[in-house]
Amino acid sequence: MFAILRKEFNAFLSSPVAYVVLGVFLVATGLFVWVFPESSVLDYGYADLQTLFNIAPWIFLFLIPAITMRTFAEEKKAGTIELLLTRPLTDGQILGGKFLACLLLALLALLPTLLYYYSVYKLGNPEGNIDSAATVGSYLGLALLAGVFVAMGVFASAITRDQIIAFLVAVVGCFLVYSGFDSLASVFEGSPAYYISQLGIAAHYRDISKGLIDSRDLTYFFSLMAVLLLATRLVLQSRNW
Length: 241
Prior knowledge:
77% of the residues lie in helices and 0% in strands. It is built from 13 helices and no strands.
């Protein structure tokens, strides 16, 4: 699995995809956090990074499918999937390696944003006047959300040999699990609205962003990743049916 991870990650770094993804993510978040007056921390007047954590999921919604669309679709189109599957590797090892490589690249995009935290920490009045617990929770929430989006993207790539179709399927799937249930819940009131919203990522992401790490939220994210990865494994195993 780690051999596949190294191969995939090195392939990302040797192609422009990784640098485009990192560049777009950092430019987009930088503009919203520091430049645009409607969302700029400098104009907002409060020492927090809520703008970053509000906009990052929507950027990931498009960037992560761009990362994952090639994982299996390109292998199928090039005809190298058969060679890969005949190697002494299990389907789980192949899937795990590709999933972790894509997730690692997504998390790599978050690392430079730690400079935003340091900047806001130093700019606060008094210095350090920032809710560090909520910031850590928000970063954890983004990492978990990235894991779900990567799992969705890998699944979309496994069911088609066309990268564009894989990208579109992943974007739609990520949008539905992130925001679709909140939109549906708005139609209802009371308990039904609450339980429907709990089926989506946004509600659990908001809870973790408050700095309160609840086992129910962690279970939700890891369960959703497991279901998507299991579905992808079943797609790979369907060649034997």
